[in-house]
Design goal:
The chain is of the alpha/beta class and 105 residues long. A 3-stranded parallel beta sheet has the order 1-2-3, sandwiched between helices. The two termini are 20 Å apart. 25% of the residues lie in helices and 12% in strands. The chain has one domain.
Length: 105
């Protein structure tokens, strides 16, 4: 995901996996590291993680952004919906998909 997206998340601490040295971890290890570090949610554009990982026993939530393309112009419009989700109490192990209403042309 574009590292600039974190600047669009207001009212919450957002840290890119690259900043933590986690960018080369497998999905399973990334989820485990984020959970161990106390993160409430892992935000991703990787639509496959939710099919590859069993979230039932996790404390961390998985939030998947589903833009048509992963470039900033397509991800940025999802920041408002993400903020609404992050302001809720997330159930442990929850899986949330955030899809756009419309996409840039």
């Amino acid at each position: 995901m574009d590292v600039r997206f974190a600047r669009l998340i207001t009212g919450h601490e957002a840290v890119h996996a690259r900043a933590l040295g986690w960018h080369e971890l497998s999905n399973r290890k990334l989820l485990a590291a984020a959970e161990e570090a106390g993160f409430v949610a892992l935000i991703t554009t990787d639509k496959n993680i939710r099919h590859q990982q069993n979230m039932a026993k996790k404390v961390i939530s998985l939030i998947t952004l589903c833009p048509r393309l992963t470039e900033s112009d397509f991800i940025a419009p999802l920041a408002g919906r993400l903020a609404i989700v992050l302001n809720q109490v997330l159930a442990p192990g929850s899986e949330i998909l955030i899809v756009p209403d419309t996409e840039p042309a």
